[in-house]
Amino acid sequence: GEDVEQSLFLSVREGDSSVINCTYTDSSSTYLYWYKQEPGAGLQLLTYIFSNMDMKQDQRLTVLLNKKDKHLSLRIADTQTGDSAIYFCAEGNGDAGNMLTFGGGTRLMVKP
Amino acid sequence: DAGITQSPRHKVTETGTPVTLRCHQTENHRYMYWYRQDPGHGLRLIHYSYGVKDTDKGEVSDGYSVSRSKTEDFLLTLESATSSQTSVYFCAISVKQNEQFFGPGTRLTVL
User: Tell me: the pLDDT tens digits for A19-37?
Assistant: First the structure.
């Protein structure tokens, strides 16, 4: 079946770059997503990338996709304390219902 | 927040009791989803709906039922709650084909 894997934890210093990694197994994935969850809150869609792209940049966020290796990463430039949260990657097949399969989440801690 | 509300936001109940969680949207989107979130598992799909009275099972549907009698409301029912159903439940809607937006969640504790 489909599987999405992420490392559990990442700690960085304020002002550094953060890189959160994700691997997936479903080669038919059409869209790959990054969501952010702050404590006690729902999931916020940060960005997504279409599977025929290899990079997408949106302000401080850069998504890199290596489709051959089924590897997705999210780079946050100039990481701030407000970036501390759990980050989830997810894959979707892009059909009418677009069911998403989520990774277990990476907890990012930003130290001042 | 894409106009999604969930109620209740917190609930404590006892094993064997029925529980219904409500998801309400204000924008008449066709697709709605129920997920549960547990540590280490991310979010897992319970059921989804693709229209009024049209629902289907997700990955972890055992012990849950859903109903959608109006476009704006999607109900999740635990007929007889068990401790393994202690979780945080999220509703989501599909705004465009490739974008899902989530509600604030309901924290359910089954004692």
Answer: 999 999 887 888 999 999 9
